[in-house]
Write a structure and sequence with these properties.
The protein is mostly helical and 248 residues long. It has 10 helices and no strands. It has one domain.
């Protein structure tokens, strides 16, 4: 039986943490499927990619009811990300992912430390100062996030949320808006991986229902979490993503 009994629990934790901090959850699912269940890496990436849009849709539904999603900004970013998500998925079997993962991990380390330092500097107070000069930078970075989502199966939220914070979003609104982006890129990535055969149907069916439940709970709890704590929690999640990329 091995670790198979843990699959539903991993799905629940993936949905819960993903909806609270705005990451897709692949950082948990991919290493679990690859190391604990010994699925080949492309199959683990594809199965994770197929779970992400269901969990994201669950949290997106709750955030939409709360009117927390910046739809116009989300649609703009997703239009740049989707074509590169398809490209990343199709290249997942041939690109040397170790080199890409090391570069991205370095960037995520930098971003996480910046978020921690700015939070401590502001003594935990939420700031939402908009810097218009940075808005032009968001679409190309969104394209990178889409590519990474397809290539590595991590969802892309680790890139989306940090690029929204300097654009005038609070951490709460950034996480909520990211749920739509994770759904859009996740669905595109999932379809692409299914078409090339990167899916373990049994593990997907065990992960998906509990991921949806966890995402609902996370979206409900988000407003009850202090902004300063949420920023630190997100930065910690980025560090976890970075470490996972280095030691994948």
């Amino acid at each position: 039986m091995g670790f198979s009994w843990l699959v539903p629990l991993v799905g629940f934790l993936t949905g819960l943490v993903g909806s609270v901090v705005g990451i897709g959850g692949g950082v948990v699912m991919v290493p679990f499927l690859n190391i604990s269940l010994m699925l080949p890496l492309p199959l683990a990436i594809g199965t994770s990619a197929c779970v992400i849009p269901f969990a994201a849709a669950s949290s997106m539904y709750s955030y939409a009811k709360q009117k927390s999603i910046a739809w116009r900004f989300a649609l703009t970013l997703s239009s740049f990300a989707l074509p590169f998500t398809c490209l990343g998925a199709y290249l997942s079997k041939v690109v040397p992912q170790k080199h890409i993962a090391l570069i991205l991990a370095t960037v995520l380390f930098f971003i996480s430390f910046r978020i921690i330092c700015s939070t401590l500097k502001n003594k935990g107070e939420e700031t939402a100062e908009c810097k218009p000069r940075l808005r032009w930078f968001a679409p190309p970075v969104s394209a990178l996030a889409g590519f990474v989502a397809g290539l590595l199966g991590i969802g892309g939220g680790a890139i989306y949320v940090p690029i929204m914070l300097p654009c005038g979003f609070t951490i709460h609104s950034a996480v909520a808006t990211c749920s739509f982006l994770l759904f859009a890129t996740g669905l595109t990535s999932a379809i692409s991986h299914i078409l090339i055969g990167n899916l373990s149907l049994t593990d997907f069916l065990l992960l998906m229902p509990t991921a949806i439940i966890g995402a609902q709970l996370g979206a409900w709890k988000l407003k009850q979490i202090r902004s300063s704590f949420l920023r630190i929690l997100f930065a910690s999640a980025l560090l976890l993503v970075a470490v996972r990329m280095i030691f994948r």
